[in-house]
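With this grant's support, the team has encoded backbone shapes as discrete tokens. A representative record is reproduced below.
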Amino acid sequence: MTTLPSIDRHELARVSGGAARVAATGDQLDTQMQMELQSLTSQLSNLQNNNSNSSSSSMMLPMMMMMMGGGGGSQAAAAQPPPPPPSPTVVKVHV
């Protein structure tokens, strides 16, 4: 952690620059803070609504496919059995 050096009070009086405008009064800060919080709350609400709408529509297609049984309204065909294993290698030796 970096510590900042302290400035002597007499040197501080010679510092130029700083804020270009005067700070707002308490009432102005309260109003501005309320407006910012309302804006943030509104944006979060919109984001939540967008996420809930997209998740419900993205679930709709798979559910419809399961209910319809693959597209034709009938049951899906059974899977084919796996192929038989290859025959073993046999070596005949004549003695």
